[in-house]
Every structure is written in C-alpha cells, then in structure tokens.
Amino acid sequence: MLKKNFITLILILLLTSCKNSSIDLSKVEHIIEIDQTIKTKYLDVLDSCHFVALETTKESVIHEINTIRFTNELILVAARGDEGVFIFNINNGKFIRHINMQGSGPEEYSRIDDFYVRESKREIDILDATLKKIISYNFEGDFIKEVKIPMNTAKEFSYLNEDIVFLNSKATGGKKIPYECVVMSNSKIRNKYLKIRKPIDIFFKTKNSMLTRDGEIYFRPLYSTVLYQVFKDSIYPKYYFDFKGDWLNDKLIYSEVSQPSIFIKKLDEINKAAFLSTNVGKDKIAFSFYKNKNDYNLLYDIKTKKTMEIIDYKECISRYSNFDYYYEGKFVSLKEPSLIKDDFKSKVNGSQYLKKEFVDSLNPYGNPVLMFTKFKDI
Asked: How far is 66 from 10, CA to CA, in rounded Å?
C-alpha cells in the first residue's frame, strides 16, 4: 500500500515549471544554511510519539494514500486511484465511512487532485482539475455545491479567507495561465505569481509544495528552495534553504532527460542535492532532501533558528517514512504495519513508545499506521 520511497515519483512529459526565481535575500525572514547544521540523534530531539492504526475492513481498504487531512475528531484520507475519501476516528483509527462520488455526472467528480476540509462547516471540498471545479460534500457524503474554476492545471488548493481560493498550478501546458501560483475569487482569477519560464521533461513530485497552517498558506515552486507565504495580494519569500551551490542546476533541470533513473544517475554524477520536501509546523520545520544516493532528514527550529540533522534516522522508528503531515504540534508520518512489527521486534530507537498489545493487533497487510511525533525545543 504505502510507498517506502520518500519521493512520490510522477513522470509527466513536457511539464512546465519554475525553479528558484531571483529573490532579494534581505527580504527573506529565515535563511536556513544547510552547511551549518548540528548533528544529533533521534532520541535527543524526540519528545514523544503515539500511533493510530487506520482500521482495515472490507469497506476501508486503502491501496495508496494521496493526501490526509485532520479535524479535532477525524482523520480524512484521499486515496490515489480515485477511490474516494475514507473517514476514521482520530483517537482510535476506527473506520467511520467512505465517500466515493467518482463519475462524470452531476454532483460527481472525475478524480481527486486535492481536497480541503472546512471543519466549522463540516465540508469536504474536492478539487477536480479535469472538470475544472471544486465540489463540496458534507461529512456524511451528501452533495452541497460546486464551484467552477477557470483552469484545468490546478493540482493543489487551499483557502485564503472564505471567498478566495489559492490554486497551485504546476501541471502541463499552461499556455493561458503559465504561472506556478494562482489566486482566484468568485471563479475568476485575481492574481498570478511566478511565471513558468519554459517546459521541462521530467517532474518529481514531493509532498507539501503547498500547505496551510493556522490560516497561513505556504507555497514552494517545483525544484525551488524558496518557501513563499501567500497573502491576498502578494507572496513573500519567508524561508530560503541555502545549499551553497549544492542544489541541482538548470542544466540538469532543463535537459532532455525523460527517464527517472537516468535523471537520478546524472544528479549523482554532479553530486548535487534535490527532492526537497518541507513541512512547516507551529515552531519547527521538518524537511528532507536527497544527495549522492543518501536521504537527509533535518529539523529547523523557527524560534532559535537552529538546524539539526538526525544522523541515525535510518535506525529509528521513523525510518522508511517522512513527516509529510502535521496536526496539533505533532509531525505525522505513515508506516506500514509490517514495519511497525519489525521495528518493535528489533527495538529500534523510538520503539519504546509502542505497546505490545497494539503491535500484536496490527494486520501486517492492513492500512497504514499514523505516527504522531512531537519534538523537543532545540
């Protein structure tokens, strides 16, 4: 079910995109210098963690997870492959219901590109870029409304106030709207940011190129090391991950390489970093990147501006996973239940937070386990 590789790899021919735009570093609030990291071990930064297994029934089998959203009571999972949205109890992982309105008719969506949960309204808003609409259902799966959007290249979205939708456009062929970031209101485009320069031949998608935290929206363009904050009428470069020339160059990005294995081979040959994945929490950023056949996992403390590299990540309970999600002060990652069992048996760092009865209850072939991790101040 769950892909072990930290990169969700999608190959799209003739994709339009944008790398680092020219920015004024004096305007960046946080410059995260990768060569100034402090090496640490997992247990030295771990405060606590707990686990929630998503119940596996005949009605709740998830073959591959696309996106997860949280409310105070629920875990909502959009499955890849148009399987719909699965809803679970956030405390015990018990399956509640499955919403699947996939189709081409009224009140239906052809696919789920992204979804957003408005807890106060008990609404699930689903982005269907193919049919150029956002369609809303209540938590019981009843149709509420649909909003037309003027583009079919949107892949992620969020809300900036109630009446403004932010769309992250990073798919192919945006001839009419060749921008990474689009803000719309009342189904009409309001603002466009970061014009796409020219097409490239390959696209590696990493998690959280756009995310929402406490009403704030953050956006990172494809192959960029700049994380922008989005406002109603502007974007602001808030975080810059400074690789000091070690980030992959334009020559490789815009080369005519269409095979992922060849791209990675060339990346290793020039010894450059790539595949940055970032997740902004309340007071920390969990991020990772790839360089020279190695994955690096780090934490940045927003208050102290210290960066810690977790050097034993491959030997701890978080191995084979990334902190792709965030909820109530905790970074959330996905684990295969079979790996949870292996980690408990091997007594890897962090496995002391697992209880034997919980591990014994896991179906090794069942739905993923969510691990909620809280880190210490650094």
From this structure: 13
